[in-house]
Write a structure and sequence with these properties.
With 153 residues, the protein is of the alpha+beta class. Helix content is 30%, strand content 19%. A four-stranded antiparallel β-sheet has the order 2-1-3-4.
């Protein structure tokens, strides 16, 4: 092989090796994903768990509960997304409903969170669901309310 051919081959190899790095740079930073199964969080009923000064995000109540059970973490602060308004709600103040509607299609989770009991009952009635309470309620015993949070109404 001539010097020119060797140089061309080396250039092609270098360009091929650089392709993944160039593609990553063009895509930009990765989008936020669930800490359990990697489901994209965009448009998901995000659940945030704050434990030991670290915040983790999950795509659904089920993933957050699985992570808590696996790690044994607790007590923690859990913030859920209100299914009616999209607002963040402290889980200790939220009302939870299991219904026929998928809250997260990627995982099959059917648990929805609501800031207001009236919204939770309306959803339960409309979609053959049930209000979760006691041991059925997500995050039982592991949730710590943030200072100033109101109790469930």
């Amino acid at each position: 092989m001539t010097g020119r051919g060797t140089l061309l081959l080396a250039g092609l190899l270098a360009a091929t090796a650089a392709l993944p790095f160039g593609a990553r740079a063009l895509r930009g930073p990765p989008s936020p994903r669930c800490a359990v199964d990697g489901v994209p969080l965009a448009g998901a009923p995000v659940v945030r768990v704050e434990e030991g000064g670290v915040e983790r995000s999950f795509c659904c109540v089920g993933c957050a509960e699985r992570w808590l059970a696996t790690t044994g973490a607790g007590p923690v602060r859990v913030v859920v997304t209100d299914s009616s308004t999209g607002a963040a709600v402290d889980a200790g103040c939220a009302w939870f409903v299991r219904s026929t509607v998928l809250a997260q299609p990627a995982t099959g989770d059917r648990v929805h969170a609501f800031a207001r009991k009236e919204d939770a009952l309306r959803h339960a009635e409309a979609y053959r669901g049930s209000l979760l309470s006691g041991k059925e309620s997500p995050f039982g015993g592991k949730v710590v309310r943030q200072e100033g949070d109101q109790s469930r109404r």
